[in-house]
Structures are given as structure tokens and as C-alpha cells.
Fold:
Amino acid sequence: MSTVSGTGNSYLDNLRGTETTNSSTKKTALEQSDYFALLTQQLAYQDPTKPVDNDQMVSQMTTFSMADGISQLNTNFKSFADGMSSNQVLQASTLVGRTVRVNSDSLVFDGTNAAYGAVEVPAGTSSMKVNIYDESGALVRSSSVDNPTAGKFDFGWDGKDTNDTKLEAGLYTMKVEATVSGKNQTLATSSYVPVSSITLGSSTSTMQLNLLGLGAKKMSDILEIAAG
Structure:
């Protein structure tokens, strides 16, 4: 006698499993329709001699509407924040390999290509001197500029010292001294540095750009994105 497999029982068992799963699914929060259904039941079973006060009922409805609105607002804001976060990650990822400018007194020399910095020249500046120091603090190069134009002034260093000798790759320090309206002062500098990678943020930290030689910087620290 042939043996018939029990596919019918398995199908019924699957149906029962689906029914069990569906019946066990419960809402974790009251929705607006649930609230008004409860309110209708309350009105239907209220004591006719002591009806619910209209002001109290309106107050309950207003409170629930406000709570429901705030909950919806929180949901929408979270979606908006998630979208903004994804957009920031996408924007930051396009910066990998690009050169950005940040406030710093450091010049990153890779041993081959020139390192670039910038300074904001105040109005009334008659002269300016750009000094480059190595990691030991020794002066390796100095360059003077007469009557620089006010505004952002970009400058480059080819990695050579005063003897025209190419120096090793590394982190160098720049210091810009200027004579402004007859007085000597040190100007704040910024540096052009490549973006090597990005570190994604979390619930407790913000996304950061990892700059070659300068470490991690926030997106808000970026002053300029160089062309190219």
C-alpha cells in the first residue's frame, strides 16, 4: 500500500500558527480612534443624573490631541534627523581625498608636494613675515611680504630650508608676524590639509573628518574646500 504524506495536516498546522501569531500581535499604545471609542463608551454608561462635565470632556479631548500631536511631531522630527544624518554622511564621504582648510598653525609636508597655509591680513598691514619651524622648534625658512593686500592671503612652502635643501616629510609649524598700523602682531593662520577618511557619528558623538597629520576635525571646523 502506498504511503500518503501528511501535507494536509501541515497546511492546517501552518494556518493555526498564522492564527496564533496574528492573535498574539497587540498594539503597544492607544491610538486616537481607541481614545474616542473609550470616550463614547464612557458617555453611554454614565449616570444620567451626573453627566460628564462638558469642560472636563473638552479638556480630556484637548489633552489627548496635544499628546498625539507631540508624539507625531517627535516621530516626524526623528525621521527628519535621520535624513539629515544620512545626508551629512553622504556629503562627508565626497570629501575623502579632497583638500580642506582649517584653523591651525601646522603645515603638513609629505616630502614631495608643497604645503599650503593661509592668513587673514588686516587692513593697514605694511609688512608680513612667514616663518616655518621644524618639530624641534628650529627656524628652517622665512619669507617676507611687503604691503600685502587686506583679506585672505594664501602662501605655499616647497619643503626646502634657507639653504635650498629639501627637508623630510613631517609636521612643521608656521608663524606669521605682521606690522599693522605701525604695531607688531602675530596673525592667526589656517592650513590646507587632505581628508584621509571620515569617522561616523553615534548617539554620543558627532561625525568627524580625519585630516592627514592633524587628526580628527568636526564638519563645522572646515573653513574652505579647495577646488579640484
